[in-house]
Amino acid sequence: MSLVRRIARPMLAAMFVVGGLDQLKHPGAKAKAARPVLDQASKVGLPDDPELLVRANGVAMVGGGALLASGHVPRIASTVLAGTLVPTTLAAHAFWNESDPQKRAQQKVQFLKNLGLLGGLLLAAVDTDGRPSLAYRARRAGESAQRTVHMTKREARHAARAARREARLKAAQAQNALP
Questions:
Q1: Residues 179 and 100 both lie in one domain
Q2: pLDDT tens, position by position, 49-89
Q3: Are residues 64 and 111 in the same domain?
Q4: What SS3 string covers 73-140?
Q5: Is the pTM of this model over 0.85?
Q6: Which listed site, 2, 11, 30, 117, has its alpha carbon 20 to 30 Å from 67?
Q7: Res. 153: pLDDT tops 70
Q8: Does the keyword Phosphoprotein apply (predicted)?
Q9: Same structural domain, 95 and 167
């Protein structure tokens, strides 16, 4: 792992670990703010307990943040964190609902900060750490399999021709051996 990744991943993950712990310890205030977004959650089959959903989001943030910071499955961890950031941002920083210009500006800054974090998470989610991506490796494996099939067929054709030649030679030798 490069030095930049070793430093940047924990820096990106720190906010999620701290925010997730806060959601686990104090879900009440977050659940109240998240109520408009959580009302939509019941439509997709999630429980109707706002504090439970806030705590679950906190667990995902702490777990994903810890995995990203430690460099274990960083692409999956980044994707999980991006998934937690979207409802959190919509619930906590809906600047378009604020009427007070000062609060609206403050919420807009927080919204844009989270948007920047989402961009960083998306970059981390596609970062292959210098190794080829899974799609590239799968494509190469498919090409290798196709080459193997092609080579096997070619070798089988050569072996069949050689067997036919050998059979003709043996037949000719047997015919010459007859009186």
A1: no
A2: 888 888 999 999 999 999 999 999 999 999 999 999 998 88
A3: yes
A4: CHHHHHHHHHHHHHHHHHHHCCHHHCCCHHHHHHHHHHHHHHHHHHHHHHHHHHCCCCCCCHHHHHHH
A5: no
A6: 30
A7: yes
A8: no
A9: no
